Amino acid sequence: MFNFRSMLFSTLIFAAVPPLVLRGADKPIEYVGGTVKSIPANATGSFDFDDTREMKFLFSGGFYAVPYELITGTELSKDESSHHIFRKIPAPSFGHKKETLTIAFKDAAGTAGSLSFDVSGNQANLAVDTIAAKKAFAEAATIPGNDWWGDRYWKTNRNKSGWETQTASAPPLQPGTPATK
Q: Is the pTM for the entire model greater than 0.70?
C-alpha cells in the first residue's frame, strides 16, 4: 500500500511540475510603450523573426516591422517585484518573472525611436539573441562600395571621370617653382 501511495504521489508531482515550470513559455508579448504611435498601448502579440531583413511585431491590428540594420541596441530590465498570495504571503514565481525588452532603433529619416515590451525571461533572452544574430548577418551581407585604393594612383576606364575632373581642377605649375603637396 505504501508503494502505491508513493508512486501515485510522485506521478502527480511529475505531472504537475512541468506545466508550472513551462507556464511562461507561451505568454503573449505586450507592447508597453515607446515612440511608435501605430501600435496601440497594451497591444498583445508575438515576434516574427522569419524574415532575414526585418523583425516584426504581430498584433491583432496588424504588424510593425523594424529592419535589423536600423536597430541600434537592445536592453533587458527585470521586474523586481515579488509575487504574493493575497498580497501578504510571499510566494516563489518559479523563475518566470516578467522582463521589459527595449529595442532602440533609428527610422529611415535618422530619428531615434524605441519599442518596449513585457515578455517572459525565456522569450526575452531568445529575442535579444535572435536580434543580435540577424543584425550581425545583415551587416555581414552588405555589399562594400565600389571604391578601390588603386583608383588614386592609376587611370582606368572605371575611374576615368574622376581623373578628368582632378586634372582639370589642379593649378598649372610655374617653371622654376618646386611642386608642393
A: no
